Amino acid sequence: EVFVFENVIGLAKWAETAIFELKGYKITKNIINSENFGIAQSRKRKIFIGSKKRTIEIKNPIIKSVKSVREVFNSIKDNWGFANH
Known about the structure:
This protein is an alpha+beta fold. It is 13% helix and 27% strand.
């Protein structure tokens, strides 16, 4: 049995996982930022992963560079036929 819970930093509290630990879940907690996943915005989220069998590691990816939305659109050769987009 496994679950994943995510929420904004201000709303979720780390202590909320205590009830799952009492029920036998091994809990992993981490804060991730969407920009570390190649998304063109910075949005921090709390992530909880619970597992009955083992602790599940949350790995933060290594992104060498983040592209802006403009850079992504400019990299499209024909802009899908849309002028000035």
